[in-house]
Each structure stands twice: as structure tokens, then as C-alpha cells.
From TrEMBL:
One of its GO terms (molecular function) is nucleic acid binding. InterPro entries: RNaseH-like_sf (IPR012337), RNaseH_domain (IPR002156), RNaseH_sf (IPR036397). CDD domains: RNase_HI_like. This is RNase H type-1 domain-containing protein. Pfam families: RVT_3. Residues 1-97 form the RNase H type-1 domain.
Length: 128
């Protein structure tokens, strides 16, 4: 599922939104160990604690992402050059595609709020 927002976002905010959505998704699938590869060097350095964060909004995203990261038994954040990140290219193309043009196999989650503002959704399963 690819997250899309109904609010304006800088590239850095979009990267953090994708990180948080990805961590939430894999965590909900029961994953306990993960390698997170990203091509935005600044964000990877921030997440690893290698550099500080000046932007107030990014501080909130960082707090959300690091909180989620603590729920994993083992998590590694690795920077990879954009030229080597083919998955990112595919997702960036997807982000600029109108929903009517998307293949039916692709599900898009539209987020109304920023990731750090959202409260976790409660899922109720009923046995029938």
C-alpha cells in the first residue's frame, strides 16, 4: 500500500511519511527484524542519531519513527545512493500518477493527517 497525503509536504516530510507508513505496515504484519534502506542521506543520518534536526516538523516525525523502531527486535537503517534505489524510482512514479490510471492491483492509502498526528486505528475482527 502506498501512502498519499491530502496535505502539502516537502521532500523531507514525504520521506518521513513513507518511513512511518512502511514501519507501521511491516510491524502490523508481525515483522520483528528489518533492514530499512533509504536514499535520503539526511533522514538516514537523523534516524541513526548521526546528526541533529533543526526543523520542528521533522523533530515530530523523527520521534514517531524512532518510537516505531523501538517496537522491532532488530532494525538497521542503511543509506543507499538514489541511483541504486530502483524501488524508490517506482514509488516516485506512482506518487505522480492519478488514481484513475493506477492498475487495479495497487492499493493507495490517502492520509488526512500527518503521521505524527494520527492516533492508531483500532481494528475489530468479528467471528462469523
Amino acid at each position: 500500500m502506498s501512502p498519499v497525503s491530502n496535505f502539502e509536504a516537502t521532500n523531507n516530510v514525504a520521506e518521513y511519511e513513507a518511513l512511518v507508513a512502511g514501519l507501521e505496515l511491516v510491524r502490523s504484519l508481525g515483522v520483528w527484524q528489518i533492514l530499512v534502506r533509504g536514499d535520503l542521506k539526511l533522514m538516514m543520518n537523523q534516524i541513526r542519531g548521526d546528526c541533529g534536526i533543526k526543523n520542528e516538523s521533522l523533530v515530530k516525525y523523527h520521534a514517531k519513527a524512532t518510537s516505531l523502531a523501538k517496537s522491532f527486535v532488530h532494525i538497521v537503517f542503511e543509506h543507499i545512493p538514489h541511483s541504486e534505489n530502483e524501488d524508490a524510482d517506482q514509488f516516485s512514479k506512482l506518487a505522480t500518477t492519478y488514481n484513475d490510471e493506477l492498475p487495479k492491483e495497487i492499493y493507495v492509502e490517502v492520509r488526512e493527517q500527518r503521521a505524527y498526528e494520527e492516533t492508531p486505528a483500532k481494528i475489530v475482527l468479528e467471528e462469523s
